Amino acid sequence: MKGRILKALRETNDYVSCQTLAGRTGISARSIEDHIRGLESDGYSIESSSTGYRLISSPDLLLPYEFAALEQRIRHFHETDSTMAVARKLAKEGVEQGTIVIAEIQTHGRGRLGREWRSPRGGIYLTIILRPKIDPTFAPRLTLMASVAVATTINRLFSLQARLKWPNDVLIQGRKVCGILAEIDADIDIVNFVNLGIGINANNSTLEFGNTATSLKTSLGRDVLRRDLLAALVREIDSRQDSLMDADLIEQWKQLSATLHTDVIIAAPCDTIAGRAIDIDTTGALIIEQADGSIKTTVAGDCEPYSLTE
Question: What is the pTM (predicted TM-score) of this model?
Answer without folding.
Answer: 0.89
